[in-house]
């Protein structure tokens, strides 16, 4: 390790320790204190729009040098309206219920003690993200409301924007008696610094990478700290023999076309053989009207010469585009097998009016959200009633599915006695 | 990698895949099916006592070759009474409530869908343990009751005992329509095999190491799969200025001496300066009566020339023996700072009749169990009402504290609609 690297890793360790210490502030604050600070932050973001936009312009000027695509530049770009909407999102978080401190299930045990569980902050969260500067505010605000500190490592493309936004967080924290270090932006975007952060298991409790699959796989392979993983979304709609066909068409079109570029969009359609004659002609017509390319099994192809032949890769694909893979299956069990083989544990939908079949599907399918007669697009923190979302977990430890404030907390046991000792 | 190693890693991967597939059995079984299988297993263990003891004898005969201490040989040894008690523990698990399938908080959202969470098995658990053969039964039974498959890697010292016990699990599973592979004992105890297991993130959802700190640190550093960590227990009793002194003495003696060799035993005593004159003479006398060696700060030493001087290492120590570190602190905050610096997030006790102080302690102290006027020895799954315990987590992700059946499950979102689509 060079002297400069050694210097940098020591600075990062110091930063993480300071964040851990500063995190006691939000951990012990009352809900009212946290909410006042958040509302103040929202006001500051609006008042400092000009300074934030000037910083953002520096990033936009540098964007061609990073070879950013037009879509990436759009994600990077802030304007007064976007800042207003970021500030409004902060005010919205201030209205959400505070999970911290709630004691549940407090009850006496046979041995005489009372035992319950108290919800507490996780401690320090490390957020690793790419080019969207709004994440700097969104993630910090959720972490703070749940009583945590946060270490943020954004992408180099948004370096100046992130610093301008983080400065406002620091001002708001200090104005309300918190240490600014409770939200610490990593001052460098180099890879070695990120790798070092991922070893700080004494200081950091949870790592949340937000970005492409490559980033997430890298972080989860490298980290000694638990990582919330969100891989791809290969979401299926299974149209059962007992489906309401109007509903099935509506769920198909909504899931595939309402916003095809997101992880809870449909990528595959499974159709029970008994209903294929009645359903597939309507489904294929509706998909064609929306300009969706269909890649199907031979039985699907029999319904239209527009249907291309699906390969095994198609059933694995997360298209994020107006393309869908279609397969006719002989039974509920065949549909389930297909989902187990090709699904990604993200969102799985059944369309059926048969209660026994839908109950089985709810129980049997291993996905972060299992939906009956509802669009896959509902698997989203806001739609599911969490009020917010810091990410979606497709692995089962700690959190599974969209993560709201409660997922940024844990529970400890509390025991109340009156001098009780153990025999 | 040698040909033999390549063969072995492939065999382990195949085993893990078979376990994952077989785990669908317990995942989808009814509570009654699982309980019948467990009661049958208990009967088989008793009926096959002779065969199990013969296998155990082979391990006992080999023990000197492994250089096992007398205490380790005792942990390894089975007899008819111990087998009866293992079987009774299995019957006890059959009586526990089944966490799987419960749907909580099902409620309508503004968008019209109903959203709830369903409790589901984690999938496949990998248990890595040392010389106690009873873990082979205990862990398998808890995993199965919670609907999971389990891969078990026991220590070489208990190789034959573990195989004899696992054989009975296999028979019970098959007799009740489950695949024996749902409980898979790793057929080798070499290190390379364990390392390979810890890379199988597609097949295994959670790793639980049970043993010394060295094993746990090795597993958590090596594994790509989430690991439940249980490091040491440096548990404090803080005797506040408003303590009931009779209670304080009772909590001290019970916490330190009732079973000094376990992780929830007390290792340190903190005494508020205002009450030191009244409390410490009584405390030191009671500790002396029980033969406990005291290592204290200078203010503690002033009360008795039997008190040795405590070093910084003493405040960090997990003695697991009749030794205690004692310190007089000037305030509640000083006690809290000491616990934050030296504690291990395991079990922390306050003795106080002051409601404001105890409420603050409950909220401020970061430990898997925080106890008010109750012995640290209550931090145990059985005592806390979990009915069982597969381990204690001292890290906050997924589980914090003793882990019962619920900690071997997770929750997925369930969404019920009637053709609902997203705007």
TrEMBL record, chains A, B:
Keyword Cell division applies: no
Transmembrane intervals: none
Keyword NADP recorded: yes
Top-level lineage group: Bacteria
Record-listed E.C. numbers: 1.2.1.41
Keywords linked to the UniProt accession: Amino-acid biosynthesis, Cytoplasm, NADP, Oxidoreductase, Proline biosynthesis
Cell compartment(s), UniProt: Cytoplasm
Enzyme superclass (EC): oxidoreductase
Biological function: Catalyzes the NADPH-dependent reduction of L-glutamate 5-phosphate into L-glutamate 5-semialdehyde and phosphate. The product spontaneously undergoes cyclization to form 1-pyrroline-5-carboxylate.
Record-linked HAMAP family: ProA (MF_00412)
Protein name (record): Gamma-glutamyl phosphate reductase
Organism for this UniProt entry: Acanthopleuribacter pedis
